[in-house]
């Protein structure tokens, strides 16, 4: 059996990336993801990979683009302000249909904010982030083990869809240590990339990687092609975890660190006889609307919990489509909610149900 | 059983290492563990600290809110964490550097002159191991041997000459609380 | 039977360019094509196109190409070259792209001695967006955003890129050339070929600035533009070799 090791989330991401075949890392220091960068600086050269600290996050993401054009597995990582700087490049990478992995270990914002953990970059990650009509696949781990596992998925899906994939963590996940079984290193060359610009060689036709479509007809066709790709992603690669939802009357929706806290709160609620459950989106894009809608149709009430003033809650409301109620509880600025506070929110919803059941049922009857 | 512990003191007192050893030892015993350092707003107030959860079940929240035990190595840590302990929780106080105890009557408090005991062993740096040994003696949540095994993994090979003094400190800390009659 | 004495470089496509009458991009493209042919580099070349008039260079030069975002071509080229160190990688950038928005990228690629070649076309104006002021617009020169002429009080001074890069240790070769007379074209060709050779020999970052006319946005005839380049630009941007490595062919 492969041995468990105790690792920081940031380091587990880095090691898993190397094992997934990533050989190029371009980045710029920013807290709280520096361990990731430093791990790459120490360990990529050992596997004949390249680590380069760039002049800026803008430089880094464009170096990522260049290496991606050659078909290499390449990544960068940053946090909040640095991810904002990368957005132009991420848009170009999406517009050029290139595979790349971008890790955001979120810190607080707006502006310089602080280094404490938050989930306030949800909109930026899940709705595109840069200019233009595109989406990233966004993976949201909630444990160190999942951080390692999702790095493999990130590189595979980036290659499969020729689309940038973002792994969205936060300061808690990046800094904490948990046991992890590291996936076995990936063997072989991976998928063929006939589109890569590696020099035309003896081919009669040279290759071009561009995001420039000057004719509206062609540009629209391209945007529709991207939209179709995202639809395929939604059909095949929407991921979530359901916890104690089978008979749940109150369903908490939370991802990443917040989901861990909510899991504790759900257990406390169950101990008190409240039928609570948790839906934890693992892909934030594509968003797991289907299980949320299904539960809403069965009458479950929803509580969205985020380390922000409310971003993912919009997607929960869209998924619920007015079939049920959606409450929100969030802490921001680096403050992390106590599971007991989340429990209070669940109890509040429970009491509202008891108070309003008669009226609702009366109306239905 | 879920043990939620805080290790707190000044930077340089080995609190982060102590927490990592506990997490590592717990992992070696097949338990679920999580270690999280003081981070963000938690870094205010002159203490370095980390939280460790060791549990038979998967750990929901890695962040510790109501610790079942705390080891405090300096005065600000006592003031910060004593009020957070769960009723019936275990508080270990390094009385070489801390005067007094918490006013709470609903927790168990044990004072240990860890720095003095470590000096007697000729290595001030193992003060943390006295306290950890004592915690293991009081709560029996892991075995000392697992901590030694963890030390072998965490310490680089050229530091393995320190394993023995660490073992002694752990053992003496454990004996201190199991052989003497203790009162807060 | 007539003997062919002049033909299109093999590494150029058989198409008509979109450039304005009197624009020098066509000549500079051709020099790049000739140098690629002579050094037999085209099959192993990855070019990086800028944002600006020459964004469509990939329609004219028949090698693999990547279209980079504004100013970032040296960073993209860095990523390509680090992944494929044995391939030939060059960027082709204008003055807005390289000397304004892309200043950080060019300086750091040069400082790292990144083994790529940069062809920098300086026509002292923004062409594609319609004649706005560039970082290389001369003091007194009018543009749509300096309608009364560039003033040092309001707009500062034009950047002399070769001189600036020449303060760095990283570059192996830095030259400034022009293409407004046949003699200058011959000299420019030699510089571009030498810059490519530097990369082939693994000498690190090589840089050629080409002074270029933009009659359309300067509001001149092509002939007057040539004279203006000679009389106004060259005194401020002297054509010379700033740095040439020893022994390069």
CATH arch. level architecture of chain B: 3-Layer(aba) Sandwich
Structural class of chain B: alpha/beta
The share of residues in helices of chain B is 25-40%
Q: What is the number of strand segments of chain A? A: 16
CATH superfamily of the largest domain in chain A: Thiamin diphosphate (ThDP)-binding fold, Pyr/PP domains
**Shape, per Cα inertia axes of chain A:** globular
| Regions with little confidence, pLDDT below 50 for 5+ residues of chain A | 357-365
Protein name (chain C): 2-oxoglutarate oxidoreductase
Keywords (chain C): Oxidoreductase
Pfam family, one (chain C): TPP_enzyme_C
Domain Thiamine pyrophosphate enzyme TPP-binding (chain C): 59-210
Describe this structure in words.
Chain A: Keywords: Oxidoreductase. Chain A: It comes from Heliobacterium chlorum. Chain A: InterPro entries: 2-oxoacid_oxidoreductase, PFOR_II, Pyrv_Fd/Flavodoxin_OxRdtase_N, THDP-binding, Transketo_C/PFOR_II. Chain A: Residues 15-227 form the Pyruvate flavodoxin/ferredoxin oxidoreductase pyrimidine binding domain. The complex is a heterotrimer of chains A (365), B (184) and C (249). By secondary structure, chain A is of the alpha/beta class. Chain A has helices spanning 9-19, 34-43, 57-69, 80-95, 122-126, 144-161, 171-175, 216-237, 256-271, 289-297, 312-320, 339-364, and strands spanning 4-8, 24-27, 50-53, 74-78, 100-108, 114-117, 137-139, 164-170, 177-181, 208-209, 240-243, 250-253, 276-281, 283-285, 301-306, 326-330. Chain A has two domains: 4-186 and 211-237, 3-Layer(aba) Sandwich (Rossmann fold), CATH 3.40.50.970; 241-364, Rossmann fold (3-Layer(aba) Sandwich). In chain A, helix 1 (9-19) runs parallel beside helix 2 (34-43). Chain A is globular, with a radius of gyration of 21 Å. With 184 residues, chain B is of the alpha/beta class. Chain B has a single domain (2-179), classed as 3-Layer(aba) Sandwich (Pyruvate-ferredoxin Oxidoreductase, domain 3). Helix content of chain B is 38%, strand content 20%. Chain B has six helices and six strands. Chain B has a six-stranded mixed β-sheet with strand order 2-3-1-4-5-6, sandwiched between helices. In chain B, helix 1 (15-28) crosses helix 5 and helix 5 runs antiparallel to helix 6. The longest helix of chain C has 19 residues, at 182-200. Chain C has one domain (25-243): Thiamin diphosphate (ThDP)-binding fold, Pyr/PP domains (Rossmann fold), CATH 3.40.50.970. In chain C, strands 2-1-3-4-6-5-7 form a seven-stranded mixed β-sheet, sandwiched between helices. At the A-B interface, strand 6, helix 7, strand 9 and helix 9 of A face helix 1 and strand 2 of B. Strand 10 (208-209) of chain A pairs parallel with strand 2 of chain C, so a sheet runs across the interface.
